[in-house]
């Protein structure tokens, strides 16, 4: 369905308000989910918003969160108060940006938060302030790292951004869990090697992977190593481990979000221009795909009819 961007933003915000979220906090996820749609990631847009509304109704998201922050050296520690990481970060963004511009490097460590949504949103946010960034998070356990097939870590995405040039956003698994869940809802299979069933046996049944099995990391142990790195960064930021993070029920998962932001001017004159120029060379001369350049133009937003109907029904 073709939709006006302002209509989508307002509808997203009103959906959160209808489910008891404060107006101050509701503005943040409305913009986040709209941005995911504009970035061509519908699995993390309106579709994901519906999951947030369910979590809000269940009490897993604090709709009236009041995030608090404190600074120690180059680290801005934020307690999200069981609310949304996006809101907590935006609420204290000026302090983080000031730290980075004053010292060259700063870290936002967001703990006690609901799962963090589309991770590419964070480097896009930091890029608007001229900052190169590396972002990591975890989630309730969804991924097996051994032959037992037990879920021990989340899909643990990471994102990296260079202003005006690149945004990388990827999980440690072959595909994001939300997209596997969408396949399960449509009754579609998944490729072999993506997941195992509850007994640790390979499966191509998306529903089995979602309900009783586990996803597998890219590249076997190498992908598992990356999952462990991102898990420890998220825990360093104040989050629960993926094993301890509640995946169901009324409790907040209380995961962590680690954001390292860098002012490129501290790394030498023309540092950012050098990075941007190199990435452009790779793209133009060597036909290398540089992620994060695509963005839907205003007026071209198209949301699945069924998903949009569910959003409207939630008002």
Automatic annotation (TrEMBL):
It comes from the Bacteria. One of its GO terms (molecular function) is oxidoreductase activity. InterPro entries: Mal/L-sulf/L-lact_DH-like_ah, Mal/L-sulf/L-lact_DH-like_NADP, Mal/L-sulfo/L-lacto_DH-like_sf, Malate/L-lactate_DH-like. Keywords: Oxidoreductase. The keyword Methyltransferase does not apply. PANTHER family: MALATE DEHYDROGENASE, OXIDOREDUCTASE-RELATED. This is Malate dehydrogenase. It comes from Corynebacterium liangguodongii.
């Amino acid at each position: 369905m073709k939709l006006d961007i302002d209509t989508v933003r307002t509808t997203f915000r009103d959906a959160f308000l209808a489910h008891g979220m404060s107006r101050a906090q509701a503005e943040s996820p409305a913009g986040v989910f709209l941005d995911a749609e504009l970035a061509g990631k519908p699995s993390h847009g309106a579709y994901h918003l519906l999951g947030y509304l369910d979590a809000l109704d269940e009490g897993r998201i604090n709709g009236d969160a009041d995030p608090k922050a404190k600074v120690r050296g180059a680290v801005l520690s934020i307690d999200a108060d069981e609310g949304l990481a996006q809101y907590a970060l935006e609420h204290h963004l000026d302090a983080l940006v000031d730290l980075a511009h004053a010292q060259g490097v700063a870290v936002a460590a967001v703990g006690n938060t609901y799962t963090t949504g589309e991770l590419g949103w964070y480097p896009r946010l930091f890029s608007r302030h001229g900052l190169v960034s590396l972002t990591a998070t975890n989630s309730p356990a969804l991924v097996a790292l051994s032959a037992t097939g037990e879920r021990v870590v989340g899909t643990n995405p990471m994102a990296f951004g260079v202003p005006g040039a690149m945004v990388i956003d990827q999980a440690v698994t072959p595909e994001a869990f939300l997209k596997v869940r969408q396949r399960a809802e449509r009754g579609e299979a998944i490729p072999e090697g993506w997941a195992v069933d509850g007994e640790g046996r390979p499966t191509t049944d998306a529903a089995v992977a979602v309900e009783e099995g586990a996803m597998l990391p890219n590249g076997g142990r190498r992908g598992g190593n990356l999952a462990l790195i991102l898990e420890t960064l998220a825990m360093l930021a104040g989050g629960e481990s993926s094993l301890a993070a509640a995946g169901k029920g009324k409790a907040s998962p209380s995961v962590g979000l680690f954001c390292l932001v860098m002012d490129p001017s501290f790394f030498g004159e023309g540092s950012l221009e050098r990075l941007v120029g190199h990435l452009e060379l790779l793209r133009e001369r060597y036909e290398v795909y540089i992620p994060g350049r695509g963005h839907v133009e205003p007026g071209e937003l198209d949301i699945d009819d069924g998903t949009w109907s569910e959003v409207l029904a939630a008002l």
